[in-house]
Amino acid sequence: MRDFYDDQLDALAADLAAMTTAVRLSLARASTALLDGDLGAAETVISGDAVIDAARESCENDAISLLATQQPVATDLRRVVAGLRIAGDLERIGDLAAHIAKLARMRMPEPAVPASARPIIAEMARVAEGMLESVAIVLGTHDLDAAAALLSADDEMDGLYRAMFRDLLDGDWDGGVEAAVDVALLSRYYERTGDHAVSIARRVVYQVTGVVPQA
Amino acid sequence: MRDFYDDQLDALAADLAAMTTAVRLSLARASTALLDGDLGAAETVISGDAVIDAARESCENDAISLLATQQPVATDLRRVVAGLRIAGDLERIGDLAAHIAKLARMRMPEPAVPASARPIIAEMARVAEGMLESVAIVLGTHDLDAAAALLSADDEMDGLYRAMFRDLLDGDWDGGVEAAVDVALLSRYYERTGDHAVSIARRVVYQVTGVVPQA
């Protein structure tokens, strides 16, 4: 019986890992769609979002089945509950990638990001991808250094977000209203991606140490 | 034993109801802060967000304790798992209310919403408050008509969101870049509030009927 239980816990972990891979790829493609005007990448992200949503349902069903049949307690129980929450955060990152891809597609063949905003948005994309890479490591290894790196990457993300809004609002913005609105939303999407990555790292740190890391 | 179990399930439901009340009030106050330039309302929302975050932790601990000690199965298990997710959605609505209040406060004593955008933003605020009222009813009574009303209110919300962006992007916007960015973010906050309300209603409908209502 115990072997089957371990198999089920491993299956949940494997599903979360597969979901993380899918979400990472989706976010990277969304950034390619945005920054390179790649329509195919945008379409792939948008149509692939349903697969990520289904993966979340699958993780949730795994977790519920585990709770019903194995009735885990203590550490294992918290691990299963954390898995439910992590699947939710991953799904939201997938949604945000789809939002980025849709915004990019809507403006094609024009770039959604004007030249003046490109350095910061490209940097946000890079930081977000690094954070998703850290999410994969943290989930796979429960490595606390990777979790700490993720939290400090989020400080960088927040700094970029604030810098982008300073540029938008300092009175010198020359990109026009449409581009300002696009850039504000894109900044928000990347910043939210970072928040969800942090939420995942916090869950894992809590599982490992019993202490929730502060913001 | 069964009595204590029922008490625990009732306590979780009562905590979710209390959280819903707090979140409704917070969102209503955020809209007052925004539309009436009420600084006190903004401060109350912003400082109250930590209480809502703590309520979510409390709901989560209730749920985990129930899972650990009572090991519910079938319907009860799905109810507890749904409770975890609903607490998460409510917390996010609280966060969005705090975002609205912060944006309002940042612009005071000027209004964050220019006169031309006020009718649509005020309507989004009204629809959001109605949706939160429906959330309270749906959670309290599991009434499927209230859940259906909530889903159709979200269609209204999405229509308002699209209308606001049409106004922002049709080339006639005369409110300037800063106001455009503010209005874009505010629209997004209200629209996300609606999405979280829908997510809660869907969870409840699924508990009652076993079928997830489609978007």
Structural commentary:
- The structure is a homodimer of 215-residue chains.
- By secondary structure, chain A is mostly helical.
- Chain A has one domain: Methane Monooxygenase Hydroxylase, Chain G, domain 1 (Up-down Bundle), CATH 1.20.58.220.
- In chain A, 86% of the residues lie in helices and 0% in strands.
- Chain A has helices at residues 2-36, 39-70, 74-107, 118-141, 144-169, 176-209.
- In chain A, helix 1 (2-36) packs antiparallel against helix 2, helix 4 (118-141) packs antiparallel against helix 5 (144-169) and helix 4 runs parallel beside helix 6.
- The termini of chain A are far apart.
- Chain A binds chain B through residues 60, 63-64, 67-68, 71, 73-74, 77-78, 81, 84-85, 88, 165, 168-169, 173, 176-178, 180-181, 184-185, 188, and chain B through 60, 63-64, 67-68, 71, 73-74, 77-78, 81, 84-85, 88, 165, 168-169, 173, 176-178, 180-181, 184-185, 188.
- Chains A, B: Belongs to the PhoU family.
The H-level CATH homologous superfamily of chain A, spelled out, is Phosphate transport system protein phou homolog 2, domain 2
Task: Enter the CATH topology name of chain A.
Answer: Methane Monooxygenase Hydroxylase, Chain G, domain 1
Total domain modules of chain A: 1
The stretches of 5 or more residues of chain A where confidence is low (pLDDT under 50) are none
Radius of gyration of chain A from the CA trace? 19 Å
Oligomer: homodimer
Question: How large a portion of the residues of chain A is in β-strands, by DSSP E?
Answer: under 5%
Overall outline of chain A: elongated
Give the helix/strand class of chain A.
mainly alpha
Order of helices and strands of chain A: HHHHHH
> Total strand count of chain A, please?
0
Q: Number of helix segments of chain A?
A: 6
* Main sheet specs of chain A: none
Percent of residues in helices of chain A comes to over 70%
Largest interface: A-B, 26 and 26 residues
Distance between the termini of chain A: 40 Å
pLDDT average of chain A, as an integer?
Answer: 93
